[in-house]
Amino acid sequence: MRRHAERPRRARRQAGYSLLEILIVLTIIALIAALVGPRLFAQLDRSKVTTARVQVRSLETALETMRIDIGRYPSASEGLELLSHADPKAVSGWYGPYLSGGLPPDPWGRPYVYEPTTDPQQPPHVISLGSDGKPGGAGGAADIRNGAGV
To answer: Which of 59, 117, 144, 145 has a 20 to 30 A CA-CA distance from 107?
Structure first.
């Protein structure tokens, strides 16, 4: 009869994991996350920069198409919104919208900056202020603009 009483006690000891085993597994998981996590976030940042570059090029192409139709780039007050909607009676030759799906925000959720140039023959600047949302910056926080460096 004594044998029957010892079996449940052994079974209880072997039924689960010890606290030490759980702590070792959690430590290994934390180490893997510490090594892999920053690489994944860096890749995400690079993807956002690439997306911003593609969107800036798309906006630049839409601006050029609209310029061909209406004979000019949008004024500072009209901005990039003129690509999506305009009163055709107020803007002669407007055959838009020139963007499918409307004007997108940059990958960080902020609107693109539109800066017309003083020379009407030169294309305006289209700028994403990068991850920090401030002019200038370096790395992922650097501005992304049309023209050189895009």
So the answer is: 117
Q: Are 62 and 44 in contact (CB under 8 A)?
A: no
What tens digit of pLDDT does each residue of 71-114 get? Answer: 999 999 999 999 998 887 788 889 889 998 889 999 999 999 99
pLDDT digits (tens, 9 = 90+) for 113-125: 999 998 877 899 9
Torsion angle of the four alpha carbons 118, 56, 94, 70, in this order, in degrees rounded to the nearest 10 = 30
The proportion of the chain whose per-residue pLDDT surpasses 90, expressed as a percent, equals: 47
* Torsion, Cα of 49, 53, 58, 60 (10° steps): 140
Distance CA(109)–CA(17), nearest Å, equals 46
DSSP assignment of 68-82: HHHSSPPPTTTGGGG
Looking at CATH, the fold of the domain delimited by 19-145 is given as Glycoprotein, Type 4 Pilin (3.30.700)
Q: Within its chain, how far is the Cα of 65 from the centroid?
A: 25
